[in-house]
Amino acid sequence: MADPGRLERLERRVRELEEELAREKRGRGAARARIDTMSPEVTDSNPYRCAERLRGSARVRRMGRRESRGSERRLMALKRMGIVKDYEKIRTFTVAVVGVGGVGSVTAEMLTRCGIGKLLLFDYDKVELANMNRLFFQPHQAGLSKVQAAEHTLRDINPDVQFEVHNYNITTLDNFEHFMDRISNGALEEGKPVDLVLSCVDNFEARMAINTACNELGQIWMESGVSENAVSGHIQLIIPGESACFACAPPLVVAANIDEKTLKREGVCAASLPTTMGVVAGMLVQNVLKYLLNFGTVSYYLGYNAMQDFFPTMSMKPNPQCSDHNCRKQQENYKKKEAARPKEEVIEKEEEIVHEDNDWGIELVSEISEEELKAASGPVPELPEGISVAYTIPDKEENLITGETVTESEESLEELMAKMRNM
Amino acid sequence: MADPGRLERLERRVRELEEELAREKRGRGAARARIDTMSPEVTDSNPYRCAERLRGSARVRRMGRRESRGSERRLMALKRMGIVKDYEKIRTFTVAVVGVGGVGSVTAEMLTRCGIGKLLLFDYDKVELANMNRLFFQPHQAGLSKVQAAEHTLRDINPDVQFEVHNYNITTLDNFEHFMDRISNGALEEGKPVDLVLSCVDNFEARMAINTACNELGQIWMESGVSENAVSGHIQLIIPGESACFACAPPLVVAANIDEKTLKREGVCAASLPTTMGVVAGMLVQNVLKYLLNFGTVSYYLGYNAMQDFFPTMSMKPNPQCSDHNCRKQQENYKKKEAARPKEEVIEKEEEIVHEDNDWGIELVSEISEEELKAASGPVPELPEGISVAYTIPDKEENLITGETVTESEESLEELMAKMRNM
Asked: Does the keyword field hold Phosphoprotein (chains A, B) (predicted)?
């Protein structure tokens, strides 16, 4: 049956749809194209360039630095200012981020914006509206896997970064093996290990899995954590064999003068603040940049107490009786390597990190005087003021990747400390 | 002329367009609807709720806290954990953010995600691809005004927040008057002043404009800054009459053991790092939350030296010979108010902030011992180690809102300090 108005209605509908689609696409905008090298060109399309003004260029010329005009870029400026010798090197590094939640997502975004070479992301959670009180994820991403949502956003921000995402829980046996394989082989050049693993997870089991993997592989990693009450956090650099691993000593947190545990007890709702998570992610990625690009002082441990704005730093020796046999093996390797080095170098190294201040090998790097340390009270007299133990060491002697759930030790901290001292 | 295939082709085109539009909209997703009160309901659509798991709920019940099950929310958990007495109060506050760049945009995002009542944003810049090495803005926003792009993103994240944005430079005479009017009247309840002004600008002139406005209005504000080399920053709380204003003393920065000035010289390309900016924004908004919600210790000055992970804190008395007459007036008002208070209260207050440690009234709140202070070297012997002067005080006696550009003082720091001491 002929409908004379049908053609006209269809034509109008096509026009409407085309307009709506155009509006939709305009609103979202087009992502920028990839850039092969950190170009020194001063063009509007170079995201690494500096937003220059005419007056400024004139001044730069007056200063006899005309040749540098083209390379004025905000990140590359770190080089010109003498902070970093070779900023471009950032593009050669691969970093694995385990846990893409409140800290991990911001960590991945910072690394992406800094121009890291490749990012491996591991997480098995989905974005929920309950996550909106931290940074990064947006309400329209609710329901997507965190790694998928993160990859989409990060690729838009910087298409020069390579992404490899894994939507699984690293603590199950099969996934753990795959995780080990990817951190061993997943660098920019396939077959080479990643440069750094960052732990941004929110539970003890996942931290232990990362610790186990890194001890076995001799993989340098950094741990991060935010307390359950959201007002303290910390980052820690772990060099297997050289500094205390996660199983060497009870992981430490900065006390906020309130009872707290970093360990997230499942189902007990933890508080969270975008502020604390932003600060911890910033401290973490700053430490990553300093470590990878070789500038400033890399912190072995940096705490953050938001209640008092207190930021303790320290370093810890590994425990020769560590329950992880791979940690003990790495310690032996490190000792042999140190013994083989020319003497001056060894001394320099020792001054830098290994000290015998106390039973736990905790060395104060700054801010806390010997007097303050001696006056420090609390359940662990050897710990500097403001630092307390986050969680106790599990009972098991060997590593935890058995497919079972880790059971938290019921022993008191004092009992554990006494036991470890008598080991 | 009849075209028998035309109807069919149009129908196919409508289907294609509808599908593409649906894909486009799915990709972007729908923003969430507004929520009138911080509801305790545990539903998937409540962004303030905690992501609870069954096992957890059981545990919560075992702990005899069944009644709290519904109110387990990540932000509200701050209340349950004894950190904040009345978190919901956050929705009653209005904060003005001046400068929506590297620090200001993250500051606005944190406040939005925390559920602030109203945000006023001031900036006159456009988003550029050169901004992509800081957090927040995305490449597709290039060309939009920063306040417009920020409002769009922030409204999607949390439609419960009220936004008022001004795309202008606050330092010109007309705009300055409008700016004064909005911070005096732009609270949630029109006609009332905002609760806090945050300076996230990158130049001296804008900081001076905010200082002038806040001294005149007796408006409490916080200043923030990141050094030109991107590896240090600071935040500062300024209570007119009670703590040093921006004109009282040369604003201070944390030294990174390298020559630096926070003052952005126009055209000289400053380095910038998302890490430093994220840490400074986190410190700033944490201080805002502590100040507004009355928990923890609000810092008068908190510095960040990224090279050494050093975070000095201190506080400064106002300068009785401050060049800003409104600052001097506020000092008189404060003295009168303090004199009228019961004695114990005055003492408590004095212990908290006003000390006479040195000519500059700089008080060490923590971390730096008296010995370290005495041993501190550098051009300004009264300043604690690690703190140096960011920029010098301009020559002019009166405030700077004259429509002219501020000229930087050519006097050496030593000359200025000597002059001020002899005032």
From this structure: no
Nearest to B17 among A21, A48, A131 (CB): A21
Strand pairing report for B387-389 and B252-254? antiparallel
Reported ipTM: the value is 0.73
Q: Which of B50, B114, B214, B269 is catalytic?
A: B269
Domain parsing of chain B, residue ranges:
70-423
Is A81 in Cβ contact with B139 (below 8 Å)?
no
Q: A187 and A195 in contact (C-beta within 8 Å)?
A: yes
Chain B residues whose CB is inside 8 A of the A113 CB are 132-135, 274
B310 interaction partners in chain A (CB closer than 8 Å): 311, 366-367
Phi-psi region of B252 (alpha: psi -120 to 50; beta: other; left: phi over 0): beta
CA distance A209 to chain B (A): 22
Listed residue (B394, B256, B367) closest to B312, CA to CA: B367
pLDDT score of A39 more than 90: no
B-chain residues near A91 (CB < 8 A)? none
The secondary structure of B292-352, three-state, reads: HHCCCCCCCEEEEECCCCECCEEEECCCCCCCCHHHHHHHHHHHHHHHHCCHHHHHHHHHH
Give the architecture (CATH level 2) of A78-423: 3-Layer(aba) Sandwich (3.40)
C-alpha angle B39-B114-A113 in degrees, rounded to nearest 5? 135
The strand pairing partners of B329, in sequence order, are none
Across the interface, whether the CB atoms of B129 and A52 are under 8 A apart is answered: no
CB contact under 8 A, B133 and A142: no
Q: Is there a catalytic annotation at residue B269?
A: yes
Query: What is the arithmetic mean of pLDDT over B128-138?
Result: 88
Per residue in A6-33, pLDDT (tens digit) is 888 888 888 888 877 776 665 554 456 6
Contact A269, B81 (CB under 8 A): no
Instruction: Specify the length of chain A in residues.
Output: 423
In angstroms, the Cα distances linking B264 to A15, B254, B408 are 50, 16, 12
Whether residue B271 and residue A20 make contact (CB cut-off 8 A), yes or no, is: no
- Give the whole-angstrom CA distance, residue A249 versus residue A320: 11
**Beta-strand (E) ranges in B103-251?**
118-122, 162-166, 196-199, 221-226, 232-238
- pLDDT for B49 equals 44
Q: What pLDDT shows up at residue B253?
A: 55
Q: How many residues are there in chain B?
A: 423
Residue A137 phi/psi, 5-degree rounding, is -70, 155
Nearest to B60 among A77, A158, A267 (CB): A267
CB neighbours (10 Å) of residue A248?
Answer: 27
pLDDT tens-place string over residues B118-127: 999 999 999 9
Average pLDDT over every residue of B309-315: 90
Distance CA B102, CA A114 (A): 13
A254: left (phi over 0), alpha (psi -120 to 50) or beta: beta
DSSP letter, residue B408: P
- Contact criterion met (CB below 8 Å) for A226 and A272: yes
Fold for the domain defined by B70-423? Rossmann fold (3.40.50)
Residue B257 CB partners (closer than 8 Å, separation 6+): B307, B308
Sorted by sequence, the CB contacts under 8 Å of residue A128 that are 6+ apart come out as A142, B44, B51
- The active-site residue, picked from A114, A214, A248, A269, is A269
| B74 contacts in chain A (CB < 8 Å) | 130, 133, 230, 269-272
The shortest C-alpha distance from B26 to chain A (Å) reads: 9
Contact A313, B287 (CB under 8 A): no
User: Do B52 and A267 make contact, defined as CB atoms within 8 angstroms?
Assistant: yes
List of chain B residues whose C-beta atoms are within 8 Å of the C-beta of residue A138: 29, 153, 156-157
